[in-house]
Amino acid sequence: MASNQKQREELDARARQGETVVPGGTGGKSLEAQEHLAEGRSRGGQTRREQLGTEGYQEMGSKGGQTRKEQLGTEGYQEMGRKGGLSTTDQSGGERAAELGVDIDESKFKTSSG
Q1: Mean of pLDDT values over 83-107
Q2: How many angstroms separate the Cα of 50 from the Cα of each of 38, 56, 57, 94?
Q3: 78 CB contacts (<8 Å, ≥6 apart)?
Q4: Maximum Cα–Cα distance for the chain, whole Å?
């Protein structure tokens, strides 16, 4: 039991330094705060799925992708996917693309919001 307490104290110290130590706890200033944020975010998604039903929830995700595709245009959407596919946990797709010398043509992204 003492090791569990010590481990929580270490995680809390890291959280207080701004590190995200709980998946979904981004923005929490302590271990406890991150745990509460993660739980609330998870519950929000579960509640929405219960309201819409599984099919409706999947449809909502699909519509979100379609909307983004319309905003960026087909070519821009493909470029965004290429960039996202290069991302890792410690580097964004843009950073990794630059490191690997992969050319991402962001001019294909439509910038108009309508």
Answers
A1: 73
A2: 18, 9, 8, 36
A3: 108
A4: 57
Return d(Cα 102, Cα 38) in angstroms, integer: 35
> Under DSSP, is residue 103 helix (H, G, I), strand (E, B) or coil?
coil
Cα(55)–Cα(49) distance, integer angstroms: 9
Q: Is the pTM of this model over 0.70?
A: no
CB within 8 A of 87, min separation 6: which ones? 93, 96
C-alpha 107/C-alpha 112 separation (Å) is 12
Give the mean pLDDT of 104-114.
62
Question: Which residues have C-beta within 8 Å of that of residue 27, sequence separation ≥ 6?
Answer: 34, 37
**Residue 110's pLDDT band (boundaries 50, 70, 90)?**
low
Query: Cα separation of 51 and 19, whole Å?
Result: 34
Return the DSSP state at 22. S
Number of helices and strands in the chain (H, E): 3, 0
